[in-house]
Amino acid sequence: MEKRLRSSLQSSAQEFISLATKQNLKSSKLSFKTLIHSIKPSSPPCTSLPSTISDSISASIQSFHTLLVPNSAPKSEHTPPSKRRRRSSRRSEPEPVDEKHELLERLEILVHIALLCVSHPRKPFQLSDLLPGVQALHDNLIVFESELSLSSEIESLCEEWWKENLAGRESLISQSLPFLLSRSLTLKKKVDVHRVCVLREAFALFDFDDESIEDLKLLLIRCMISPLYLKTEDGRRFLAFVFLLSHQLGKELLAMIRSQIPFGRKSMLEAYGDILFRAWRAAQGDSRSEIENGFLQDLIEAAIHAGSGPFASYIRRLLGAFINQRTTDGVEKMLFRLAEPVVFRSLQVANSNVRQNALHLLLDMFPLEDPDSTKEEKDTLLDKQFFLLERLLMDDCPGVRAIAVEGSCRVLHLFWEVIPSPIITKILTKIFDDMSRDVCTEVRLSTLNGIIYLLGNPHSHEILKVLLARLQHLILDKALTVRVAAVDLLLHLKDVRNFQFNKVMELEVVLSALASDQPPVAQKITKLLLPSYFPSKVPVEEACNRCITLVKRAPMAGARFCKFAILEGASKSHLMELVKVFLSLILSPHQLEENQIEGFLAATSYVCDVLASEPCFINALKELLNGEKIRGLLTVVSKGQVHSSLFNIVSIVCPDDVAGVLEECMGVVTNCSGLTEDIDRQTETRSAHKLLLAMGGFDDLIEALTAFLHKAAYRCHVKFGADMPSQSVSFANRKKSKSSGQFSIKSKIINRKQSFEDDYLLAVGVAWQVRDLLLNEDTRKEFMKSQCLEMLFVSLKVISEVSIVHCGHCKNMNISPVFAYVALALQMTVDNVRRSSIQSGDPKRKKTKSDSSKFLSENILEMTIEHVLNCLEKLFGERDIMKRHDAGSCKLQPTNTTNQHSTKRRRLSPIDACGPSNPGSTYVEAQQVFCMVKMLTAVLQFMADVTAMCFAPHNHGLFLNYTSKCVQQIISSLDQLHHNQIQFKEEDKRNIAICLKSSSTYAAKILNVILAESSGSSITLPKAFALANNILDLIISIESCMGSGHALRIVAAVKTWLPDVLLALGSASFSQNTDFDEEHSTVSEQMKLHFPKWPLIVAKIELFEVNEAEEDDECSRPEKLSAFHKLLAMLVILLKKNPIIMDVVGNVFMVSSLVGLEQKNFGLTLGLLRFVCLKLFKPDDMDWGDIMLSSLQEIFPRIHREIAEENDEDQLKKLTCAKELIEPRWMHHLYETGRVTLADD
Question: Is 0.90 surpassed by the pTM of this model?
Answer without folding.
Answer: no
